[in-house]
Write a structure and sequence with these properties.
There is one protein chain. The chain has one domain (3-115): Protein of unknown function DUF192 (Jelly Rolls, Sandwich). The chain is 9% helix and 44% strand. It is mainly beta. The radius of gyration is 13 Å and the shape is globular. The chain contains 2 helices and 9 strands. A 7-stranded mixed sheet has the order 6-5-8-3-2-1-9.
Amino acid sequence: MSYRVENLTKSTLLADRARRAANPVSRALGLMGKKSLAPGNGMIFARAPSIHTCFMRFKIDVLFLDKDMRVIRAVHGLRPWRAAAAASSAYTIELPCGTLRHTRTEPQDEIRFSVNP
């Protein structure tokens, strides 16, 4: 199943083929082993107040959302072998590098997930 991730505040599409890390294996593996993350793709984590990019080969953009689906932290171009966190995060979204800049996504923006038909 894939999801659309939209920035309602800016009326922009962040991803139209995001996957949800729904089980312990998909949460542990995340994007490790992938060669890249194509535009329109992404990964959604629930209850993940921190992430790491160990064993990854490329930079990513990361959004941390509160329980009301508002951005509490936006990380641009997180490089491999780094970590990022936002203690009060209810959701974390990993996106292709440059997505946040291109869509002008920033803290306080409201985000929505919806299941693709």
